[in-house]
Amino acid sequence: MVENQFIGTWQLVSWENRDSDGNVIYPYGQDAIGYIMYNADGYMSVNIMMANRSNFASEVILTGTTEEQAVASQSYLAYCGNYEIQSDKIIHYIATSLFPNWVGTVQERFFQFEGDRLVLSTPPLSVSGKQQTAHLTWERVNKLQDYGIQFV
């Protein structure tokens, strides 16, 4: 049996979108925060967000003004589902997603391992009328680490 190198938890190092002119865009900033997890049972989950997102005025979950909710959803990406490895691609079969249009779709990612890093890239996508490819670099999480997040 071939070892599945994806299994584990990976922390986002960078997310760059590159257009056909060579311009680099950072959709959630150069300090975006995220994790992607691949389990041995064939399920995956990814969460990415902008750093320093604003809190809602209310401390009660599932509340917030329409504006607060809109800003929160525009600064966060999340989906999960099954995955399948195919030669140089990993296929994500989306079961749930913050972006409803992705539910029930297939997302292909090209992959490359570089030591403790995993680079995932997309086929060309049309973003704001321009062709772009997303390049996400992840680093394997091997132990509990202090990421500067304060828990109350």
Describe the protein.
The chain is mostly beta strands. It has a single domain (8-140), classed as Lipocalin, CATH 2.40.128.280. Helix content is 6%, strand content 49%. It has one helix and ten strands; from the N terminus they run ββββαββββββ. An eight-stranded antiparallel beta barrel has the order 1-3-4-5-6-7-8-10. A hairpin with an 8-residue loop joins strand 6 and strand 7. The longest helix is centred in the middle third of the chain and has 9 residues, at 66-74. The chain starts with 7 loop residues before the first strand and ends in a 12-residue tail after the last strand. The model has no long low-confidence stretch (mean pLDDT 91).
